[in-house]
Design brief:
Elements (H helix, E strand, L loop, with lengths): L1 H25 L3 H29 L10 H25 L20 E4 L10 H9 L4 E3 L13 H15 L4 E5 L1 H12 L8 E5 L15 H5 L5 H16 L7 E5 L18 E4 L12 H11 L6 H9 L1
Helix pairs in contact: 1-2, 1-3, 2-3, 5-6, 6-8
């Protein structure tokens, strides 16, 4: 569904720009033809610029390191380049270009697998560069689509459950889950509501609004409203996790949370962190671009190669 919607949006924008340019060129107004077409095609860069101005104001009182003007400019340039690649090419036209890769159960690999969970207004096409690199490294993976697109976050645990089961069946090991943006909240909902903490080796979140985002106040979809700062859904999830942590205190320690002071979607910046998790700040990286930072991929490869904990190690962590 999302791929089709983004296909219509992308092609409609290109057609509108072409019609505008053709009409004004025919009318003898070449400057207006070029200016109007450029605004239609590249107007998203202005919208991104407004987001960066807002995050700079909102982040003033946040404990995350403040971003310099140079870092914000660098992040804006990175997002201006990355966003159309994702939203106008990979997701609408290439979401099925790279298939999931799992070994046959009879030929299990020694490498644990990866489950890739996208965020809001995204699909599995976001992960195309990741899937190509994981396949080259012989790391099994499944990239899922969270559907329905605009449903409550509570609708997504079954999608994650199915993907995790596929990786478990193929590798015989608990996977590493990598989640971008809203996907991290969907994973937390799955962990809490399906009692699934023991079935995941590590969770790596990238720009996830763990405590909501300031921009959520402008959301009107069900899942967008649930990502508002301190929303009822956020409080309910926190209560469930608190109950789970009394039974298994290792829950948060399984998380590595990458966040940035230049995240133009999830801010204040520290809302993308979790107490007790391995929270890692990435300087000068915007929201979508953050998913393609080398440090993030390297961390996932490191976690994939880790051995399983022995029973004695599990007991030691549990009693710590």
């Amino acid at each position: 569904m999302l791929a089709r919607l983004q296909q219509v949006t992308t092609l409609g924008l290109i057609l509108t720009a072409a019609l505008w340019a053709g009409w004004l060129l025919h009318a003898g107004e070449p400057l207006w033809a070029v200016a109007g077409s450029a605004l239609l095609i590249f107007g998203y860069a202005i919208f991104l610029g407004v987001e960066f101005l807002l995050l700079r104001v909102v982040n003033r009182d946040d404990p995350a390191p403040p971003a310099s003007a140079r870092q914000l400019l660098h992040a804006w340039c990175g997002e201006v380049w990355t966003a159309p690649l994702v939203f106008c090419w990979r997701q609408p036209f290439r979401s099925r270009a790279v298939a999931d890769w799992l070994p046959q159960p009879s030929a299990r690999t020694a490498m644990r697998g990866v489950v890739l969970v996208h965020g809001f207004l995204c699909n599995r096409g976001l992960w195309n560069p990741w899937m190509q690199r994981l396949r080259a490294a012989s790391v099994p993976y499944v990239a899922l689509n969270l559907e329905p697109v605009f449903a409550s976050l509570d609708a997504y645990p079954p999608c994650i459950e199915e993907a995790v089961r596929r990786v478990e069946s193929a590798t015989g090991r608990a996977p590493v889950i990598v989640a971008h943006s809203m996907g991290g909240l969907a994973v937390r909902a799955w962990l809490s509501r399906c009692d699934a903490v023991e079935r995941v080796h590590r969770v790596v979140t990238i720009g996830t609004p763990h405590r909501g985002t300031w921009l959520g106040r402008y959301a009107f979809t069900r899942n967008g409203i649930e990502m508002r700062l301190d929303s009822p859904w956020q409080r309910q999830l926190a209560a469930l996790e608190l109950h789970r942590q009394r039974l298994d205190p290792r829950g948060a320690t399984r998380f590595t949370c990458f966040y940035s002071h230049c995240d133009n979607v999830v801010f204040p910046a520290s809302t993308a962190t979790l107490p007790g998790a391995d929270n890692r700040h990435v300087a000068g990286s915007a929201h979508v671009h953050l998913a393609f930072e080398p440090a993030v991929f390297d961390e996932v490869l490191r976690r994939v190669a880790e051995p399983d904990l022995s029973p004695s190690e599990r007991r030691a962590i549990s009693s710590a």
